[in-house]
Amino acid sequence: MTDPRSQLLITFLVNDCVAIDAGALAFHLTGEALLAVQDIVLTHVHLDHIASLPFIFSEMFSSIRTPVRIHATVADIERLRCHIFNDVIWPDFTRLRNVHGELLTFVPFTWRDPFEVAGLRLTAIPVTHTVETAGLVVEDGQGRCVAFTSDTGVTDEFWEVLNALPRLDAVFVDVAFDNANEFVAKASYHLSPRLLVGELAKLRRPSQVLAVNLKPFCREQVKDEVRALALPNVQVAELDVDYTW
Ligand SMILES: [Zn+2]
């Protein structure tokens, strides 16, 4: 049995109002907490990152007063229109209206150009995955900065961008597979603890590193292997825990 809270699906909630990815969002939050999320930033359209997205609009249909903004690349917006909100897999909620008006609006972002979301400054950096995927740098008005690799294998530009930031408090890094499954990690463009070491060598500044996206079947093994690295700034992120910087 797999613990249902074992990170099958991916969502990071920032300041209770911005979701990075929507894999778990509407399965986890309900009512007012879900309505408070007015911005969803998608790193890519793999199912574990968008699974709950369609349900937001069916569950909250009559409650949405301001269209939920879905930030994604132009190509991913087209993929969502074509493959999800197509009146076959799911109703086309981009066309449907409630008494208040539109339910959602797509807001395209472009690579490397900072864009503002709910008072945060975000920058999308391409990482190395099986489909186009955005690593994200998130900066707030007080100079705090947290970065997310999203799903990535061995990559370079993302780490170069982090090295050039004025400040970096933490980075959430994909460590999906254990070392025994490194061949799977390489084939699917994810990282293992051993590959993580190579990636962190590219990060030439102190920062908290939080491993995420551990696949449920090897979660405990990845935890053990990350612990065995004995790097004081590196740990596996806890699920359902608030991190504050
Ligand atoms: Zn993916």
TrEMBL record:
Q: Which Pfam families match?
A: Lactamase_B_2
Biological processes per GO annotation: cAMP catabolic process; negative regulation of glucose mediated signaling pathway
Instruction: Mention one GO molecular function.
Output: 3',5'-cyclic-AMP phosphodiesterase activity
Instruction: Report the InterPro entries cross-referenced here.
Output: Metallo-B-lactamas, Pdiesterase2, RibonucZ/Hydroxyglut_hydro
Ranges where the Metallo-beta-lactamase domain occurs: 4-200
Q: What is this protein called?
A: Low-affinity cAMP phosphodiesterase
Q: What is the lineage of its organism?
A: Bacteria, Pseudomonadati, Acidobacteriota, Terriglobia, Terriglobales
